[in-house]
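Design request, C-alpha cells follow.
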C-alpha cells in the first residue's frame, strides 16, 4: 500500500511526515499542493476527508499524523519504536522532545524555509 501525502514540497511540516514515513520504511507518494495558485482553497483539496493522511496549510496536524503513523505501523519491517511505547519513561521523553521540537526548533526552521521559498519565488519572477 502506498500512502498519499498531500502537502507543500518545501514545507517543514510535509518534510516531518515524509521523514516519519521513511523511518518506518513505508511507501508514500507526495501529492504536491500548489499554494501559489490557491489550490489548497479549492474543492478538490477541501473535499479530502480530514481523517486521511493530509497536511493542512498551517501544518498543525503534522505531528499528530506522525504519531498516527508510528502507532498504526508499529509492527513494520523496521521495528523502530518512534514513540518509545515500550516504557512509560521512554514515551514521556518522546513527548517532551516533541514539545521541544515544536516550540524551540520549529519556529526558526520555518522562518528559514519561508525565507528560502520567498527568495526562490522572487528569482522566478513571482511576487
Amino acid at each position: 500500500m502506498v500512502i498519499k501525502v498531500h502537502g507543500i514540497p518545501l514545507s517543514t511540516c510535509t518534510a516531518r511526515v515524509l521523514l516519519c514515513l521513511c523511518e518506518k520504511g513505508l511507501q508514500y507518494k507526495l501529492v504536491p499542493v500548489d499554494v501559489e495558485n490557491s489550490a489548497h482553497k479549492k474543492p478538490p483539496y477541501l473535499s479530502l476527508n480530514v481523517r486521511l493522511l493530509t497536511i493542512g496549510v498551517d501544518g498543525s496536524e503534522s505531528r499528530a499524523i506522525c504519531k498516527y503513523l508510528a502507532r498504526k505501523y508499529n509492527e513494520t519491517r523496521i521495528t523502530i519504536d518512534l514513540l518509545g511505547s515500550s516504557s512509560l519513561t521512554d514515551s514521556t521523553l518522546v513527548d517532551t522532545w516533541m514539545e521541544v521540537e515544536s516550540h524551540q526548533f520549529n519556529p526558526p526552521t520555518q522562518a528559514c524555509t519561508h525565507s528560502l521559498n520567498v527568495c526562490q519565488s522572487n528569482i522566478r519572477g513571482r511576487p
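Comment from the thread starter after seeing the answer: thanks! The first strand starts at residue 3 and ends at 7.
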